[in-house]
């Protein structure tokens, strides 16, 4: 951990705290990340290591997620029903002869 803290860089002034005699090594960055960083001034790649969420909050989030999926399933059902009736070749066993 000490090595990481010694090589830290201030995000505001970009002043490096690297130890004297050590070279600054940047980790490899994927092409799509470089593209986004170029589009947004000051963007930095982020890695999330932990998500601290209480059990009750997580349950409530999952309940809202399930409730939000109900209209999505209704919309998908309507779209597929329209497709089946417009193109009976897609579902001959459902429409009969």
Description:
This protein has 4 helices and no strands. It is mainly alpha-helical and 97 residues long. The termini are far apart. The chain has helices at 2-6, 31-39, 55-86, 92-95. The chain is elongated, with a radius of gyration of 26 Å. Helix content is 52%, strand content 0%. It folds into 2 domains: 2-39, no CATH class; 55-95. The longest helix has 32 residues, at 55-86. The model has no long low-confidence stretch (mean pLDDT 77).
Radius of gyration, in angstroms, nearest whole number: 26 Å
Class by alpha and beta content: mainly alpha
Largest sheet: none
**Residue runs with pLDDT of under 50 for 5 or more positions:** none
Helices, by number, come to 4
Q: Estimate what percentage of residues fall within beta strands.
A: under 5%
The structural domain count equals 2
Mean pLDDT score:
77
Helix content: 40-55%
End-to-end separation: 72 Å
**H-E string:** HHHH
Shape: elongated
- E-strand count: 0
């Amino acid at each position: 951990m000490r090595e990481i803290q010694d090589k830290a860089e201030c995000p505001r002034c970009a002043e490096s705290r690297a130890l004297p005699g050590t070279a600054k090594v940047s980790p490899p960055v994927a092409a799509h990340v470089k593209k986004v960083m170029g589009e947004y001034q000051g963007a930095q790649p982020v890695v999330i290591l932990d998500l601290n969420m209480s059990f009750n909050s997580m349950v409530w989030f999952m309940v809202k997620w399930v409730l939000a999926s109900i209209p999505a399933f209704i919309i998908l059902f309507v779209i597929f029903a329209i497709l089946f009736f417009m193109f009976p070749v897609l579902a001959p066993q459902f429409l009969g002869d």
